[in-house]
Amino acid sequence: MAQSNETEASMTGVSQRRRPKKNILEIGGRRLDPSTLMMGYGYDPALSEGALKPPIFLTSTFAFESAAAGKRHFEFVTGARSGEVEGLVYSRFNGPDQEILEDRLSIWDGAEDALTFSSGMSAIATLLLTHVRPGDTIVHSAPLYAATETLIGKVLGRMGIEWLDFPAGASQPEIEDVLRRAGDRRVPLIFLESPSNPTNTLVDIEAVRAACDTVFPTDRPLIAIDNTFLGPLWQKPLEHGADLVVYSLTKYVGGHSDLVAGAVIGSSAAIAPVRATRNTIGTITDPHSAWMLLRSLETLELRMSRAGENAAKVCDMLRSHPKVESVGYLGFLAEGSSQADIYRRHCTGAGSTFSLYLKGGEAEAFAFLDALRIAKLAVSLGGTETLASHPAAMTHLSVPPARKAALNITNNLVRISIGIENADDLIADFTQALAAS
């Protein structure tokens, strides 16, 4: 960043770390679409030697324009003064790439603010550490990603924190019953995952919010939701009662299976305490990963749309195959069912990740996975390539057998994440793999 531009930025109050004033949000009364804003929002080339795209700012610290400015910045960072830090301080707190990325992420969910983290789990851990204290009870939907369950049940459990859960898809009265079971214990947070991993079951966010308002009329817990499976394109939880949205940016947002990152998105008030915790423990995204995510955001809608179209075609073939017991795909929800009602109210697309239940058990599932030629046998989801895995033996191996059975994480379950390959080629691959199983 040129010295003259830095000086100009400090004089005018416009800094590379904040949205440039000349950024356009609407034209002729039309609010610009997020897919358009991803090409330049939050970045002014004039502040970076005219570079069309943001450079990677590989630096651990930033020079202050004056001692008074340094003091002011640290007052914000340490909480001595309320509000957000006004400039760049130190890469554990902020950086140009990270803050441009956060500005753009907030647009997709219609939020005021966003924070990015070194992984999806570091985002969840930072969020939970911000709000819980010994003696609390965390209430969550089930199932959750296995690492999230381990964090809540084992790691936080050692600190005297308990948990209660309700099944994904539970009704408002069922959720209220679970919330009341907390008794006198403080409930700081309701943590949701929808669709659930790996069964692809939807949580009724509106029912959760209504249950919380009923049981906690004066001091409602925050509602946070892991929206990784549907991403910002197919579900917007903040519009349905959630306070914070969590993402593994590794998945659809990154989209190329070449980085690990996470995010928490919400109102400025809800984000502020999480930011303070991140500043302390240093779970921020690194500059290079942030820069790569900026690249990925430009094609987010294109990639997710193509993957969603492919998934619909593949699942249509799988649902009628004689070796398939059932397909847990949101496009196949039974008309009139509670899941279909949640989908109608909450979702704008069925996604491209689904659960496939084969006839048989582990042997048949393993034979199918080993026979795949285009789809890769790997965990994760949301990449440009199609991935397949066996949750019971892989991502959810650490979940006790009884709980796996209760959550329908069975040995004949295969999780599929459809990519952007040719749909007919994928159908051919799944057809031959099923024949070999």
Provide an overview of this structure.
The protein has helices at residues 3-12, 34-37, 67-78, 96-108, 120-131, 146-155, 172-180, 205-215, 231-234, 268-281, 287-297, 300-318, 338-346, 362-371, 401-406, 423-436; strands spanning 26-27, 30-31, 113-117, 137-142, 162-167, 189-193, 222-226, 244-248, 262-266, 324-328, 353-358, 376-377, 387-389, 413-417. The chain has 437 residues and is α/β, with parallel strands linked by helices. The chain folds into 3 domains: 3-99, no CATH class; 109-297, 3-Layer(aba) Sandwich (Aspartate Aminotransferase, domain 2); 300-436, Aspartate Aminotransferase, domain 1 (Alpha-Beta Complex), CATH 3.90.1150.10. The strands form 3 sheets. The chain has a 7-stranded mixed sheet with strand order 3-9-8-7-6-4-5, with helices on both faces. It has a 5-stranded mixed sheet with strand order 10-11-14-13-12, with helices on one face. Strand 7 (222-226), helix 9 (231-234) and strand 8 (244-248) form a beta-alpha-beta unit. The model is unreliable at 1-16 (pLDDT under 50).
Map the helices and strands.
Elements: H1 3-12, E1 26-27, E2 30-31, H2 34-37, H3 67-78, H4 96-108, E3 113-117, H5 120-131, E4 137-142, H6 146-155, E5 162-167, H7 172-180, E6 189-193, H8 205-215, E7 222-226, H9 231-234, E8 244-248, E9 262-266, H10 268-281, H11 287-297, H12 300-318, E10 324-328, H13 338-346, E11 353-358, H14 362-371, E12 376-377, E13 387-389, H15 401-406, E14 413-417, H16 423-436
Parallel strand pairs: 4-5, 4-6, 6-7, 7-8, 12-13
Antiparallel strand pairs: 1-2, 3-9, 8-9, 10-11, 11-14, 13-14
Helix pairs in contact: 4-11, 5-10, 7-8, 12-16, 14-16
